[in-house]
Design brief:
This protein is mainly alpha-helical and about 180 residues long. The chain has one domain. About 65% of the residues lie in helices and about 5% in strands. Helix 5 packs parallel to helix 7. The longest helix has 17 residues.
Length: about 180
């Protein structure tokens, strides 16, 4: 931590968001971080994340054992939000949730706690944050709800196509169809 650093000012953030080279560097830094944790970014557009094809098991073990990384992840997610790349947060969170739910990977008390208490709250969009938190709660319930890879991919595709991860878009589409058909 650099005690001499200054918080970014709004005009500095706007300038950084408008510079394609800076945005590309942020993407590359994010991809490097994902690789360190045994993951890879499949698509920049949606934030779809997957296991790294090389040594993900070793990297996952390191992430599970090294809880000091959880604060780093919080900082990365906050930074992505500040720089207009918040869609990557949902991609990351839902990937981890899928790994926990469907594969029992990254499923430790420490990661679950960080995810539930901190990482999910890094999503600024209230509707998206609520949908992610509700989905996490379904997985955490004792009902045996499994958040599959297919559900993960569909949620990101739905957001790309409609602007919503969850059912709100489906309800809006149903209303629109009913109104259009009348």
């Amino acid at each position: 931590m650099n005690y001499e650093s200054q918080p970014l000012q709004a005009h500095e953030i706007a300038s950084m968001k408008a510079d394609p080279e800076i945005v590309d560097r942020v993407f590359r830094s994010y991809e490097l971080m994902l690789d360190f944790y045994g993951m890879r970014l499949q698509t920049r557009e949606t934030g779809l994340t997957a296991r790294s094809s090389r040594n993900h098991a070793e990297r996952y073990r390191n992430l599970v054992r090294s809880s000091h990384n959880y604060l780093r992840i919080s900082r990365v997610l906050k930074c992505l939000s500040e720089l207009g790349l918040e869609h990557l947060n949902g991609g990351f969170l839902l990937h981890v949730l899928n790994e926990q739910s469907e594969h029992n990977q990254l499923n430790t008390a420490g990661i679950r706690s960080s995810m539930d208490r901190w990482w999910a709250n890094c999503i600024r969009n209230e509707e998206e944050r609520k949908w992610v938190r509700d989905t996490i709660q379904k997985v955490r319930s004792k009902d045996g709800y499994v958040f599959t890879r297919e559900m993960y991919e569909q949620a990101l595709e739905r957001r790309r196509d409609t602007g919503y991860l969850g059912a709100k878009c489906q309800a809006a589409e149903a209303t629109s169809t009913t109104t259009d058909g009348a």
